[in-house]
Amino acid sequence: MQRSFILAILMALALAVSLGCDAAKTAAGATDKKGASTSKSKDAAKEPAKEAVPAKATGPAKSAAPAKPGKELVKNGSFEEWKDENPADWNVVEMSGNNFKPVKAAKAADAGAGKASAQIPKAEKEGDFVIAKQDLSKDGVKPGKKVYYSARLKAAAPDQAQVVLHFKKGMKREARDARLLHPGSGKWEKLELNFDVPADALPDSFIVFVYHRGQAKGDVLVDDVSVRFEE
Ligand SMILES: [Ca+2]
User: Which of 3, 9, 14, 145 has the fewest CB atoms within 10 Å of its CB?
Assistant: First the structure.
């Protein structure tokens, strides 16, 4: 009887211990689950942060990437190609009021780049001017995008040489001119302008003009005229 009583007590103890262990296990399991869920939620909290950092780091690089200048829109902007004693793809005319007549530009060995540039002649009369003109293909024009526009010019007097990127915008076809003006240093100068073209700019209205204005002494030379929209 005593033995069975002792056994019963031992069994009861064993059960209590095993129950306690289960309870401890359950508690441990709960802790593990809690711990796991806590660490998961920590990871979850970290994950967006991890994603956010590279996103921020690559963000500017991504937005800077499309800002690369794209396809060249000016044909023979280097003035290396000549045809019938005039630069290929350019019309050179002398403007007198609203009248104009074709004139010859001269191929110059004094180049801003490459082997040749164009010498734009002086107008015959005071107040008139000579322009080399090129219509740009509408295919490469991207309204609402940044345009990279540059030219090399050489002139001896201020206001004597300039390049104008002309276009029209909106229903009323308002004229816009972006002007590169040589300071008259007598040296080759690379002039450039980057700007956002209005979204309502008309793609078929873009023209580049190279001007020789006034009667000041010295040649006006032009080279490397470039118009490129961001890709
Ligand atoms: Ca050239």
Answer: 3
